[in-house]
Automatic annotation (TrEMBL):
<keyword id="KW-0809">Transit peptide</keyword>
<feature type="domain" description="Plastid lipid-associated protein/fibrillin conserved">
    <location>
        <begin position="57"/>
        <end position="267"/>
    </location>
</feature>
<protein>
    <submittedName>
        <fullName>Fibrillin 8</fullName>
    </submittedName>
</protein>
<dbReference type="InterPro" id="IPR039633">
    <property type="entry name" value="PAP"/>
</dbReference>
<dbReference type="Pfam" id="PF04755">
    <property type="entry name" value="PAP_fibrillin"/>
</dbReference>
<keyword id="KW-0934">Plastid</keyword>
<dbReference type="GO" id="GO:0009536">
    <property type="term" value="C:plastid"/>
</dbReference>
<dbReference type="InterPro" id="IPR006843">
    <property type="entry name" value="PAP/fibrillin_dom"/>
</dbReference>
Amino acid sequence: MISAGFSSALCVRPVVSFSNTIRGVHNHGRVTCLATSMSSSSMTVARDAEYELESRKYELLNIIPDTQRGLVTTADQRSTIEEAMVVVEGFDAGKEIDLSKLDGTWRLQYTSAPDVLILFESAARLPFFQVGQIFQKFECQNESRGGLVRNVIKWSVPRLLEENEGATLIVTARFSCVSARNIYLKFEEIGLQNINISDDLQAVIAPAILPRSFLSLQILQFIQTFKAQIPVTSPERQSVGGLYYLSYLDKNMLLGRAVGGGGVFIFTRAHALIC
């Protein structure tokens, strides 16, 4: 005989519907599939955006090779370059400067800055002057609001120094972040170093047919290790400075604009040791 207590217990036990169980499993599956679909869709959108960005960067870099880094441009070319820059800049608009990305060496590919173009113009007109690669080297890896930047210019005098790499001019400046995208440069000194004399000049100093004397070796060593540094600041003179707008920055491209109509700059990452 079943006791009354046990019978009452049987009466109040909740009944689990098989159909409800199946429905719950089905709904869980739908949620899982929906989440997976949304994740896949997000990844696709991100991939498409990255592909679009890289395509726009490639188009920009593909426009500038014939301009000789900005020396030889027409009004149409400058307009096309400006439009392509604006498109790339739009992918990075509103983001704060990432100093960890900025840190490192950048090679100049194009500029419209008059103070740089005058170097290219001088090299084009003067047979005894060459301008090689130009770099900006930022040192700000462990900084939060600024750092050091070195403008590195490779130049040469034909027959006296090695071609394009005869000597290195370095303009050093401190920079500070004054807004999300603007940095202020305060120039400190100009330096000359890494002088590599040509074989012709070495032959004049120490002819190959004769043993090199102690004096000639000393002269060669002095020239090759010569380093001059000229400060551009003093207690009586205020440092020259400038405002610089970083309009786009990622791991391999840097776009900048000198505030006040000083021109635009297009840099790509340089992986070799410069100085």
